[in-house]
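May I ask you to review the protein record following this short note?
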Amino acid sequence: MDVLVLIDKLDELVNNARPMPMTDKVMIEREEIYDILDQMRTTIPEEIKQARWIVKERQEMLAEAKTESDRIVKDANEQAERLTSEQEVVKMAERNAAQIMEDARAREREIRLGAEDYADEVLETLEVNLEKFLAAVRRGRERLQGKTGEEEEQPQEAE
C-alpha cells in the first residue's frame, strides 16, 4: 500500500474522531492508529527498496554505457590502425574515430543524465512521502499529548 494512502487514512481517522465535549480534543481508538502505523512501517521499507533498485539500475546503465563506449573506441582504434597505409585513408579513419568517440560520449552522457534524473525523481517522491508521514505522526502525537494533558487536568478540577 502507498504511504500517501496510509497518511490519508490516518488523517481521516483523526478528522472523523469523536470530539471531547467543550474542548478541541478528540478520542481515537489506539488499535486503529497502531494498525495504520504498522502498515506504514511495512510500506516505507518497500519504497526504500525500490529507490535502491533504481540507483542500482542507474549504476548498471552507466557501466553498460562505459563498456559500450570503450568497445566503440577500441573498434575505432583498431580500424584506424588497419587503415594507416595511405595518408588520406588515415585522415578519414581519424575523423571517423573521433566522430564515433564523440557519439559514444554523448550517448553515455545522455544515459547517465537520464538515469540520474529518474533516480532523483524517485528519491524526491520518497522524501515527500516521508515528510507527510512524519507530519501525520507528529499531528497524532500532538493530539495524543493534548488528550493526556486534559486527562491530568480533570482530576485537579474535581478537588
About this structure: The chain has a mean pLDDT of 85.
